[in-house]
Design brief:
Layout: H1 3-8, E1 11-12, H2 13-20, H3 24-33, E2 40-41, E3 47-49, H4 51-65, H5 70-83
Antiparallel strand pairs: 1-3, 2-3
């Protein structure tokens, strides 16, 4: 995939939040808590999110709606990262 095609698949935080079904503030909070990391940054420093990021945001939202706290979700993600290394 060339750079031009890759840039088209990256969304700024507002568009990513809308696509994932969360508020911009929620997405900013998820980033602050370390639940999600931007896929990159624009030349002006704006955070950018890809399809994988959108899927993860949707998963966070589903888990949270199912009763998991954001702290629980973070622990699940951390334990999964450690065990998959």
């Amino acid at each position: 995939m060339n750079k031009t095609a890759k840039k088209r698949t990256l969304l700024r935080i507002g568009a990513a939040a809308e696509k994932a079904g969360v508020s911009r503030q929620s997405l900013q909070y998820y980033v602050m808590l370390g639940l999600i990391k931007p896929a990159g940054n624009s030349p002006s420093g704006q955070r950018l999110f890809d399809k994988k990021s959108i899927s993860r945001i949707k998963l966070i939202r589903k888990l949270n709606r199912s009763g998991y706290t954001l702290r629980d979700i973070r622990e699940i993600f951390l334990s999964h990262t450690i065990s998959s290394k």
